[in-house]
Every structure is written in C-alpha cells, then in structure tokens.
Amino acid sequence: MKKHFHLILTIILLSVIFSQTTLAEEQYSEDYFVLKSEKFPASEDASSSFFTNGFDLVVNRNKVSAHLKEDFDFPFFETRCTGTMSFDLAGDRDTKTGNMKGTMNALMDGTCPGNAETPASPITLTWDGTFDGFATFAIDPSDGTRRIMKGKITNLQGKSILTVYNSVIPTTPGTTTIDFPEVVLEGFINDSGARFSDLLGQVKIRPDIDKRGWHSLEPGEAIPFGTHISTETNSSVVIILPDGVTFFLKPNTEIIINKPSEKKGHSQILYGSMKIIVEKKIQDESLEIDMDQAVVEISGTTLILEEKEEKSILQVIEGEVSFTSKSDNKKISVVAGSMVSASSVGLGSVETFDTTKVTADWAAFVSSDTKETTDFTSNGFLVLYGLLSVLAVFIIVIIVRKIKR
Length: 405
Hints:
Largest sheet: 17 strands, mixed
Structural class: alpha+beta
Distance between the termini: 15 Å
CATH topology of the largest domain: Jelly Rolls
Radius of gyration: 28 Å
Strand content: over 45%
C-alpha cells in the first residue's frame, strides 16, 4: 500500500509539472486583434449617437479593453437632453479558453433645456458595473492563413445613479448582451508589424489610451500601433520594424510606435536614447520620428536620437538626415559625422563627433545585450522544461530509495 501511495504521488507530481509547462507555452500563442460590436443604440426611441455605430473591443492576449466617447440626445419629460457620454471597459481574458471578465464605467454629463413649466437642469449619470463573455479566434477552414474573429459580452450589468432636476434616481440596469459579429480577417488588425528581437532586464509596454496598462513584455508579443515601449534601469531592447528598420533602445528610454501616415512611418521618442538603422533606402518614402523639440525624416541611414535636458539631439553615423526644429520651423540636412540639437529656443549649431567611438560604444551595448537575452528568449521554455525534468527525476530517485528501504 505504501509503495502504491508513493507511485501515485509521483504520477500526480509529474502531471502537475508537465501541465504547467504546457500551459506556459500555450499562454503566448495568440495575437492582438479588434472586435467590432453590432450596433447598440441607447434606446429604441432615442436619437443618441452613443453606441449607434458600435465600439471596438481591443483584445491583446490576456487583456481586453474598450473606450468610447460620444454625444447623446434623447427625450426626457417633453424636452431633449443633450451632452456627452463616455464608456470605458477593461478586464482579463483567458488565452486558452477566450473567456473574459472585468469592470466597466460610464459617465454622462449634459443639460435638459426645460420648458415653460420645467426649468432647465443639468443631467449626470455614473454607471459602474462588471462584464463577462468571450473573445476568441479560429483558423478559417478554407484558408489556413486567415483567422475568424468572434466574441460576445454576455453580462454587462451594474448600478447607476442618474441626477436630473435636482433629483437623484438610483437605478439597477438589467443585464445587457453585446454581440460581436463573426468576421474573417487576413493578417492582424492594427498590427504595426514590429517585433521584439532581443531584450535585457525589465521592458514594459502599454496601449496609448491606457496610461495604467503597463505590463511586462512577453516573448513573441505583437506590437499594435500606438504601443508605448519603455526600458527601465539596466534594461534594453531591440525592435525590428518592417522594411529593414531596426530600433535599439538603451536603458531609461520610452518610445511610441505610432500609426504611419499615407507615406511616412511616424514613431516618437519621449525620452532616453535610441539608435536607428535603416538597412536600405525606403523607396519614395521616409521614416519620420517625432521628438520633443524636432522632427527627423530618414530614408536610409544609421543615426542616434536622444532626449536630454529638454533638448532633442541627433547624431548621424551614416547617410544624411533631415532635421526640423519645432520651435522656429528651421530645417537642415545633417550628414555623417555631424550632430545637431533643438530646444525651445530653436535650432542649435551643427557640430562634429567621433563616429568610430560612438559606433563602438553602441556595438558593445548591442552585443552584450543580445548574447544574454537571446539565450533566454529563444530557449526559455526549454530551460524551464529541463529544470523541471531534472527536479522530477530527483524526486523519483528519492522516492525509489525510500521504497527499497
């Protein structure tokens, strides 16, 4: 009986270990996508524009969010109340099942003009609640390169307080279901195409609209347009963009991967230092980088950008770069071996610098980061799997010895 007990214990232990390893691998198998809701009018008799065009549910791996702000216009006691209303939703999503849950908040602020019998009055609403539902994708059976996106919010409910004509009206809205129509999509919605190559230390990202949505970068994570990328102290990251463009971010740096205009890729450095390499000339286009005090246009070159002491600094290693000061709108072309800065008072003077020394400094930074990080990101799961396997074997040996005794 004792031997059977030890055997069962060993099997259970191994099952737990290997199931956890499998879950860790499956957890990062899905990408960023957006679901567009069906039309969801405020009420059948209202002319409100709120929700009439639906809203986007942003799904990014294990997070879901939505944000909407629109005007409202609806009848109330023979008058029409108008104003603005906002709706925010945020929650978690199980990447294995697609099930999601979280909280939502709606705020309304406006006026009711009144009539001969009823004076004008402000109208406000606060509505806090919860939601659950699902958001999933499946491979199109007719074409393995396409995905079928679908989802539903099945339980949107909560308590609200409506204030109008100096009266507080507490209400408990009923459960509401919002359908997201099944859509077949090629590629990824809003995907910038940028991917992380090598990272060291703590690198965090968040959507542009969610200032509190920072989370640690995960292996293979997609980078939607509008993503903030931040490196902390002793941290760095390499980002590969489409068309042979590479960003190298040093510690204490934050950038935004913005959506490009019709012709120009438009990213932004908020603070810190980054190196950019454009391996080949971008045909009929240029990569535009927005800085605090200047705008940089690149068509094919290697350069360094830095935000330091309220100055936007450019160093050109190879090629030629257009540099425009925001404060005085002066534009110059900066060639290899030259550097220039811009501040709130205008464009600075062009100076020379040692390109060999700067290139060597960055080469050392890149090689040290790449070596340490590549081993972790490419083989992380294998290392974890190996350690757990060794632990399992060790436990089995101990149990077998006890049985023999």
